[in-house]
Design goal:
Length: 115
């Protein structure tokens, strides 16, 4: 298919047409009389925009609400209560810790005596 396209492009006539920024090229074989043998190639053409749109942060900064009235300008930021302290990431279980330590020591002593 690609070789057929290249072969027809080598012996073709280019006709360009621009529709709203999209350039349409019609490749016609020199011996072709019908449109069934013609090939449409569509490619985007870069146009200079008269009114480019702001993107991302620039748009948010431009369209944010402005403090134009005196009651807005003189308003202080909201004061909130401080947040409670965050819970600890790790919790150490202190209850029964001494008993578990004694059990470990007895188990280690029993293994050492068995050897």
């Amino acid at each position: 298919m690609a070789s057929a396209v290249l072969a027809s492009a080598a012996s073709s006539v280019f006709a360009g047409l621009s529709i709203r920024g999209t350039e349409v090229l019609r490749l016609q074989s020199s011996g072709a009389s019908s449109t069934s043998e013609s090939l449409d190639v569509r490619c985007l053409r870069v146009d200079m925009a008269h009114h480019p749109q702001k993107k991302g942060t620039a748009h948010h900064r431009k369209t944010r609400p402005k403090k134009l009235q005196p009651y807005d300008r003189n308003r202080k930021p909201a004061v909130y209560e401080p947040l409670p302290p965050a819970p600890p990431l790790y919790a150490i279980d202190v209850e029964g810790m001494e008993e578990r330590e004694r059990e470990k020591e007895l188990a280690m002593a029993g293994q050492a005596a068995a050897q």
